[in-house]
Amino acid sequence: EAMLSLYTHPAPVVCAVQGQVTGGSLGLLLAADRVIMMRGVSITPWYSEVGFSPDGGWTALLPDVIGRQQSMNWLCSNASVTAEECLDKGIAHELVATDALAAALAWAQKLAGMNNASIKSTRSLLGRKTEDIRQGLEAERVAFVRQIQTPDAIDGIARFLGKKIL
Description:
Layout: H1 2-8, E1 14-17, E2 21-22, H2 26-31, E3 34-38, E4 42-44, H3 47-50, H4 62-66, H5 68-77, E5 81-82, H6 83-89, E6 94-96, H7 100-112, H8 116-126, H9 130-148, H10 151-161
Parallel strand pairs: 1-3, 2-4, 3-6
Antiparallel strand pairs: 4-5
């Protein structure tokens, strides 16, 4: 619901990324209209390593940004993607050396001085149908809940944490 609320918000959404992004938190970036990321940040899925099914928009939103094949490759390889690579892929729109939050606030203030009706109309025309997004995110949630209860996921969690569970 959080990702869907951001994705369908009537005003443009800006995301400031100042730390590492893993797992479902990628959805916060994908639901935003503008992503400002600090250099040195990276994104790592971890799903294939831990044994979870992707959630938070990895399958519902990411293919619209980078394509289905690139999404599948990234999830299967569990590769860390740098801020510069995020910029190249269209996940990030601006990189800053320090204080992504200040850059995000500056962008939001710039937008506040523009024609809000035009921006709102443009945003609604560029968005996919809400029901398609809702269905994709719900399918992710169901698969995640089902997969997290499997022996493979429990073993993956244990390996990830460096402990033996059960």
